[in-house]
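Tokenised fold entry reproduced for absentees:

. . .
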Amino acid sequence: MIRPTQNMEDDTRHVEIIESSGINEPFEVGDHLNHKSSRKQYVPQKCRCTPKVLCFIAAAIILVFIFGYLIGYLVHRNKDLAPTCATSALRYEDVSVAHETGAAPLMDWDDVKKLLAEKLTTSSMDAVLGQLTSSNHRAGSPGDEDLGNKVITKFKEYGMKTWTDEHFVKVQDPPASGYNRIVFKNGSEEHPTGFLSYSASGTARGAVLYAHYGQEDDFKQLKNMNINMNNRVMLVRAGRISFAEKVANAAKVNASAVLIYPDPADYPIGNDTSLFGHVHMGSGDPYTPGFPSFNHTQFPPVQSSGLPHILAQTITTGMGTKILRQLGGRTQPNSWEGINRLGDESDVITVEVNNVLTEKRINNVFGVIKGFVDADRYVVIGAQRDAWGPGFAASSVGTSVLVELARSISDMVENDGFKPRRSMVFASWSAGEYGSVGATEWLEGYLSSLSMKAVAYINLDGIVTGQNGFKVAASPLLHSLVQNALKEVNYDKDKSLLSQFGKNNWESAILEPLRMDSAAYPFLAFSGIPSVAFRFHSGSSDYPHFGTNLDTRENLNSVTASQVPQLAVRAGQFAGHIALRLVHDHLLQMDLKKYNQLIRSHVVQINGKVKAVQRLQPQLLPKTLTGQWLVMASGSYNRVSSILTADIQNSDLENVEMCRMINDRIMTVERNFLSPYVSPIDSPFRHILLGSGPHTLKALTNHLDALKSASPEANAELFRNKLAQATWTIQACANSLAGDIWSLDNEF
């Protein structure tokens, strides 16, 4: 546990005096602050020292001392007037710094913004969109490889250092010969052409049960209605959560299979359009969890814990509505959309899935713009390159924005004198449609280096799906930076993105949770790298053509009033603004205090529920168990984040080494929220606040609910163990943020 606040502040003030160059420093600290004369000591010679000579010598000494004092005062006064790190790190409206020492002369931030706006143009974006649009570029196919070659060729044209990253991954594809099938009651056999990669294979037969969107709350409502869900075949609507989450939720209630259909209220795509996707409750190659799928590796055969053990299959709108109309049984809950029956035991259906497991060679493509000061620290900007079909909104737009950002920023460096402090890595991922496979395999291959050196990840997948709304999902560390970008990037000539989409309360209007099926999610929850994803959209529902063969430019034009190039430019400016800010400034603009509120809200919930369980089920949790230690760990993080903020405010931008040390402390925050007590094989998303699994604070809250209701799945000893682990994970994050080991006092 961190020392009491007063002691910590006293220590901090002492360190600040040493590191600053103020005139109040004691003379004995550092030779550069010593104003004593460095000349050899005067040894008097044998001579006559008359009073006149002695007076002359005394006057000379006094004069030298006065001149030395004045020179020292002026030097230190100038340093005191130099801008402080707080100007760069904490105040977004006053961040322009006029000068910098070191290898990279600092360009004024307003000039950087202006240059990016000049370079990213609608005409150039439209041209690249035409060059990088493809009708067939499924992962590992010749079309995917050809598109990757186009991207790396452009990177080379821009003068960037390039390389590729090859992986051999296992994926599921639909049967090459044969088919998947469903038979409802005594009706005709249906052969859906869509499929869900990583489904279990085989045949299941059971009664259909309609489960709305397949969310946890949907199954809770069915349970509260005392409906038997054992061995039922769940019929659920697509949307709201990922396919993988729907199947995982169904598996928890002992369903035998899941059928997913696009309801016409959410997906106006016609009766016969097929859906494609995956149901791995994770990311990356599920047959090499926690390590990369390099060729000829000798890792023992193992499977991800996120692979489902039940069948999963997509069906068309026509198939789904046909089944719904024939269901009997009870009426659905009033809170669900539509008027449907849930199904009874006589509504039997047979589901057969025959997907085949294949190995594919994929290549990620990279280009880098190297920094001029901290070249070994970098911001990563990435976009998925592959798609099930045309994938125009899913991948073509993001890939085009990636290439245009690389061109624009390279040109700024080459021709306009912009010198980023840190490096920028541009990544084109393959096998994104199978669950961010290319991106995750890269993370697994170089995790120890990336978690220490990658400053942030910016995701460009699916960034244009409409024009009437704007959503951002990001690590809390990046929220203030996101807000600043919203203020400074224009939506049109008269309005910024913030004034257009989030004028009153931008957080409630624009921020949304980061979804597990986003490529930014493994960067954040698996690797502990602050990440951001964003999108222009048309409404509350998802873009209906994702995962279909209808994801074309024509259909995207229909929901954007043919403004795709213009919206892509705005998306590029938003992503570019965040990236350039992170490589331009002396100190990383990450708001350490944003996590305080999130931690505190979880702590309040857990404490309240612990007391409720002790009152209602006293035999499960003894009175000696309290949330005191969790509260203290939360307080430690709050205290240390405040102290580091004070360190920043009193630091000197001219001290390159000091700024690097502070940045390194900031970069530890996200990765230290990864629980060290769980295996990435069993729980890859180890982030205790934003991850997924029994180690998270959300899971602790759910566990307390189960204890309160005396659920058979509840385990009091397991809860106490997980609570202790989560508590120490927060405390360890605070310890790391504090910096020096002598600043710690962890006596609970």
